[in-house]
User: Which sequence fits this backbone?
């Protein structure tokens, strides 16, 4: 089990170096009762199922498990709400 601490920042994009080697992600959410979250994410050639509790201040419990990519694709198509979230994450040293 991990505890996620949510922090958000506004970034001045003019001060960033050129962005390279992004991690392509597609994710969807499975509807739950209450304020808990179930997310299915495919990134590059890996997939994850993530369960998050409701927020307690600026933190919440988070459980993340690797799953087969084929299973994640099935979950996205058949269990997740549409539209999906497509994004590219860049790691900046």
Assistant:
């Amino acid at each position: 089990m991990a505890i996620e601490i949510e922090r958000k920042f506004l970034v001045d994009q003019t001060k960033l170096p050129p962005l390279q080697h992004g991690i392509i992600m597609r994710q969807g959410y499975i509807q739950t009762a209450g304020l808990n979250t179930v997310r299915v994410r495919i990134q590059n050639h890996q997939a994850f199922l993530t369960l998050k509790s409701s927020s307690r201040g600026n933190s919440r419990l988070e459980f993340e498990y690797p799953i087969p990519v084929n299973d994640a694709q099935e979950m996205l198509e058949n269990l997740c709400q549409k539209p999906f979230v497509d994004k590219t994450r860049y790691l900046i040293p």
